[in-house]
Each structure stands twice: as C-alpha cells, then as structure tokens.
Amino acid sequence: TENRHSVVSRQCPNKECSNQLPSHTISEFDTKKIIFETLQENGYPKQLINKMWLRANNTTIDDPPAADVTVGENETPKQYFSLSYVPDLSERIRKTIAKFTPNITLSFKTHNTTERLFSQLKDKISLLDHTNVIYKLSCSCGLGYVGRTSRKLGQRISEHVRSLKDTTRVSSSLVGHCREHRTHSFDFDNPKILSQTRFSRHLNVMEMFFIRLQQTGLVNDRQEGSSLSPYYSPVIWQSSRDVVVPNG
C-alpha cells in the first residue's frame, strides 16, 4: 500500500511541486480510487463500495474528481460499517480504509454463531419418526386415505400393512377400499404429513377437518368427518378453493 506522500507525488510528478504540498493533503478522488481498487480486487462488489462511500461522503466512486481536501479527524462525522469477516483480507481492508478514510470505521462479523453451529449438529427427524400427525396415503387409483396417529408415523403405517393381511376384519376405510378393489394398492413408502400438533387431544378434530376438506378425493367413510362442528364450514370452504383433488 502506498503512503500518502507517494499518492500525492503521482498526481504531481514534478518534485518541486510535490514538495510544496503539505503531506496531509490528498486528492479525494485519488482516495476513492485507491479504496475502490483495493476492495474490488478482493472481491467486494462495486455497488457495495459506492454505497459505503455515499453514506460517508455523500458522493460515489464514479463522481468526477473533486478539489484537494484536507482530511481531518473532526471535519466529518464518524461512519460505522459491518462486513463479513474473511481471515487476512479483512485486516488489510481495515488498514487501507483507516489510512485513506479515517472517518470510516469498519467492524467485522462472523456467521458461525453458536446457534448456527449447534443447529448444524442436530440430526433431522425422519419423516416416519414424527408423532402427533395427520397423514395421507395415496392409492394407485388416484384417491387417498387420511388418518391420524399420536405415535410415530412409521408405527402406524406398519399397522396398516399388517391389517391388510388380516382377512378376518376391516379395521379402517383403507382396508375396506383394498378389499373392495383387489387390484388397488396404497403407497406406504411415501406418506405425506398434512399437519402436526403438540397435543394429541387435537388430532381428532384435525383429522375430521382434513377429511371434510378433501372428502371427494378420499376413500375415507363420509361419516368420519360428519361430526365436525358447522362453525368450521367457512374455513373448509375457503381452504378447499386451493386444494387440487385427484381424479380416481
């Protein structure tokens, strides 16, 4: 990095002329040019550089050269900016800014916060391990089945698979549909969670809501959602306008 005297000399190559200038006098345009080139060479976008300079000096890097000005500590209010921290590069930028634009103070922040580090270490919960959910299973005919479970979703799906093998009883609308249509099969490998709650006591109402919402596209018995309070009707009507019901 050039010192201030060398910068002034570049503007006034005549040695006698340069000696007549005070060492603390520097062209504002030269200052902007040096800062701009340094930051741009290190990957900072031109728009960001101009924005910082504009906030500090009410001018941009692209403005025409201004008359020589004396940079004094008390002439311009202090301006503070925060940038992402990059090892080594950030310190070089700080020194350059401090040398040629003392009214600008930079601070650097790291994005590797404790909260972020711990969130990256946490294992994501598998879809089948979710509890207290309203779920939907799709049939090969295009219809679906909506159910609820307070236990893990994977456990409930395993029960559906076992119930299809039990020929002595019909334990759900899903089993009844498969018995009536022998060639139909449900996709147990790709269940969809429609909603989830922290309280299992809410599941019954939630299940009825989703059955009523998608009733024409489900194998569920019509009676399964019939006991839902009529106060939900406007909500169901509004929500159903955005639901695409598959054709069986």
From TrEMBL:
This is Putative isoform a marinus. It comes from Lutzomyia longipalpis.
